[in-house]
């Protein structure tokens, strides 16, 4: 070290052989050590992330499940009709069979995207009274197609009674398809074990307490409402869904409702069974008044209405609004579509190979 004119200067000897040089190399070594460690960790992270399972959001609505139910029913009906005609001697190339096959192909095309979505979600499907339906189907399957065809033609006998009883359950399920679709969606939002218990409840009347804590309050209300519409007196207490025993209180919970279609908008809604006759009378009157109004509206576009027709138009319009109000007052609530989002893992197409087997 040299000191001249009050300044301090470092000689090369001090730099290369002194403690500062050692400190410099030590710091540089630490820098590269941390750098390579960080690079290594980042490389491992990027490699791992490339194989992390990605979640896909899949939206499914009750309307889609209802549409699936309708298409599936149409498919079964066409298959039955085609098999029946073939059993009667019609050839595969006959006009009737070709038309049915074409119709069946169109239904299959419509079903395909819905079936793919349902398969991807691995939904638990719920078929009310499935245990009864399966028992009846097993009994029916013991008879030949010829015997079944004869029973349907004669509409009498033990075989026909079996067919009629099964048809009653199937018809009820089809009528209640909107309720069932919503229950299926809500059930699949529950843990698998709880969803299976709910399925057993509807399919075989096996009662058990179901934990519904994973559902929001609005979804809990929706589940209870639709179970009651299927005549299950459901209640939720402390996040547990249970079925009240039969009795006066249970009957009050499942006060029977029927589904109707509003004559103007074709919107589905529910009314109390006790109001069904009144609804039908008002609905018929509403259609009559609406038809007369439409005639006058159409005429007014082509020519000027007379004074008498204008007075009639005002009267009909007042009746129309009043009848609409009375019909709406009978509705428990309009039927709304339920849309639910599911999160499903999407595995990589080429996952990393496992350890080699020796």
Oligomeric grouping of the chains: single chain
The proportion of strand residues reads: 5-15%
Count the E strands: 10
Q: State the helix count.
A: 13
Low-pLDDT stretches: 1-16, 350-358
- Main beta-sheet annotation: 3 strands, antiparallel
Query: SSE string, helix = H, strand = E?
Result: EEHHEHHHHHHHEHEEHEEHHEE
- By helix and strand content, what is the structural category? alpha+beta
Radius of gyration: 36 Å
Explain what you see.
Helix content is 62%, strand content 13%. A hairpin with a 2-residue loop joins strand 1 and strand 2. Residues 1-16 and 350-358 have low confidence and may be disordered. The strands form four sheets. Strands 4-6-5 form a three-stranded antiparallel beta sheet. The relative contact order is 0.09. It is of the alpha+beta class and 358 residues long.
Summarize the structure.
This protein is an alpha+beta fold. It is 62% helix and 13% strand.
Write the topology of this structure.
Blueprint: E1 2-4, E2 7-9, H1 12-17, H2 19-49, E3 54-61, H3 62-87, H4 95-121, H5 130-140, H6 145-154, H7 158-175, H8 177-187, H9 192-204, E4 210-211, H10 217-229, E5 234-237, E6 240-243, H11 248-253, E7 257-261, E8 268-272, H12 276-302, H13 307-330, E9 331-334, E10 339-346
Antiparallel strand pairs: 1-2, 3-10, 4-6, 5-6, 7-8, 8-9
Helix pairs in contact: 3-4, 3-8, 5-7, 6-7, 8-10, 12-13
Please tag this protein with its features.
alpha+beta, three-stranded antiparallel β-sheet, disordered C terminus, 358 residues
